[in-house]
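Researcher: I need the complex structure. Ligand is adenosine-5'-triphosphate. Inputs:
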Amino acid sequence: MSSGPTPTTVPDEIPAEGNASRGSHRTAPTATAARTAAQVVDAVKVYGSGDTAVRALDGVSVAFPAGRFTAIMGPSGSGKSTLMHCAAGLDTLTSGSALIGDTDLSSLDDRRLTLLRRDRIGFVFQAFNLVPTLTVAENITLPLDLAGGRGDREWIDALVDVVGLRDRLHHRPAELSGGQQQRVAVARAFAGRPDVVFADEPTGNLDSRSGEEVLGLLGRAVRETERTVVMVTHDPVAAAHADEVVFLADGRLVDRMDAPTPEKVLDRLKAFEVKS
Ligand SMILES: Nc1ncnc2c1ncn2[C@@H]1O[C@H](COP(=O)(O)OP(=O)(O)OP(=O)(O)O)[C@@H](O)[C@H]1O
Ligand SMILES: [Mg+2]
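Model: Output:
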C-alpha cells in the first residue's frame, strides 16, 4: 500500500477520545483487512552461542493485518523488541521468515533491504532517536531528503498540524519536551507514507498526557489514513488503543485479544502472572 488516500480532515487539535468505549467500537476496514502488512513465520532468533545462547524468539508465527493497529505485550525479556526488529528488517532471524507484504526479507540484498526499510517502513523508538543537530522540520523530512526529495509535501504539511508542531518547526530536539520529541518521531515515521509503522514502547518515556497524544496520533493514522501500526507496550491503557493485542512469553506467542480494553488486558496479564 504505497499510496493510500490522504486524510480527509486535518483538525488543528487532536480530538479527545472517550475512555469508556475505546477499542470496543472499532472494526477493521473491510477493504484492507484481508491483506497482511507484515508477518513472521516460525520465527526463531538465537543470540550468542553455546552456554550463553539466548533463544529470544522460539518459533513465533504472527501476521499483522494491513490497516490495523496491533499491540505486542509480554514480560520484559519475552522477545517483543526482537520480534519487532526482525519483522522490520532491522535484525535477521536465525530461522524462519519475515515478510513485509509479499516480500520475504531474507530474499533481499543489503541495498534492497535498505530501500524497503526506507520506503515501506517507519519506526518510532522509546528514546525518540531524533538527530540532535537538525531542526524539527529537518528531522521530519530526513527520510525523504535521504531518498532524494521524494515525498508528498501536502501530506507532510498536514502531519505537522496533526502532531501539533507547527510552532516548533525550527527548534532543535533538545529544546522540546519528551512528548514533543516523540510527536516529531511519529511525524517522521509517517512522513514517507510507509505501509507499516513499528513503534517500540513509544510512550515508555512519556507522562500519561503526552502518551495519550502519541497514542491518539497512531490510532488516527490507522483509522483515517489506513496505515498499519505495530506497537510494543507494557501499558494496558496504551494497548487498548490498538485493534488487537498479541501476547508473548518466553519467545512464544501465547495469546491474542481483539477489541482490547484496559481492564481486559490487565486481567489477561494477571492471569499470565498467576500461571507462571
Ligand atoms: N543483542 C542481544 N544480544 C544478546 N541477547 C539479547 C540481545 N537482544 C536481546 N537479547 C535477549 O533476548 C531476550 C529478548 O529480548 P527483547 O529485547 O526482545 O525483550 P523485550 O520483550 O523487548 O523486553 P523489554 O520489555 O525489557 O524491552 C532477552 O533475554 C534479552 O536479554
Ligand atoms: Mg523491548
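Model: Summary of the prediction. The pocket of adenosine-5'-triphosphate (ligand 1) is lined by residues 47-48, 54, 56, 74, 76-82 (CB under 6 Å).
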